[in-house]
Amino acid sequence: MIERYGTILLFLIVVLLSANGCARQENGESRPARYHPLKGQVVALEPASSLITIAHEKIPDFMEAMTMPFSVKDSALFRGVEVGDSVRGVVAVRKPEIWLDSLTVIWKMPPSK
Ligand SMILES: [Cu+2]
Question: pTM for this one?
């Protein structure tokens, strides 16, 4: 009798774990992201927090012009970027997540002497 309950319990645990796995997949990677082009100026770089703050122009159908931090998934985006640089980039949105997907420097602040 006890052995039988053990088997049922194990079965329930397996079912619950696999159901959880499915739900996680549906909420995450499988849904496509939307991409918005961005133009702006770098205000702050925080590689330790994976954040780049950009004063960005209006993004049509998405956001008004504002200064805001963007999270960065690929640390390579920090390479060659400095505060003051004018940039173009692409913002990816997969609700509730927003991140900076690419970044290109289009103008560099001349070194001050
Ligand atoms: Cu914004």
Answer: 0.72
